[in-house]
Fold:
Amino acid sequence: MAEAVGEHGYAGTTVEDILRRARMSRRTFYQFFRNRDECFLAAYDTARDEAMERLALAHNGNGRRWPGQVEVALVALFEYLASEPGLARVWLVEAPSLGPAGIERHERTMRQLAERLAGLHPGGPAAGANGHPGVQFEASVGAVHRVLQARVLAGRADELPELAPHMARVVRGLVSPG
Structure:
């Protein structure tokens, strides 16, 4: 799915494209997935789970303070996305193409990223009144997402790792410690 979406976008990807890349029969595909949307969401979840794991490994026990944690986490995330441009496109670009199910999944992921960022902050999770991360955390995730999305859409996912220090400065600027 990720390879096909990387080449054709979600709208242009057919089950046949997926079958050809996976070297599987239509029957086998339908044993695993009810339809193309379900297959896409499985690929999305795979990309999200791997990205979240990379983020967790990058900042768990690295002994760095907030500014360093942000950069280490972004380097790990951006390196993963650069190494998997098809999954990067699935995760960063194409989810809204599914309609409500894709949009909901993507919004949940962006919220999880903002919560994770808030959890790293030295002031603790600076949540708003509704228990969600403060708007500065949401804004920083949105800013990073937009820059990554533009590079992936332009076929320049390989450039993502070099953006990490710049995007870390953006995040730190939007979310000042304390």
Notes: The chain is about 75% helix and 0% strand.
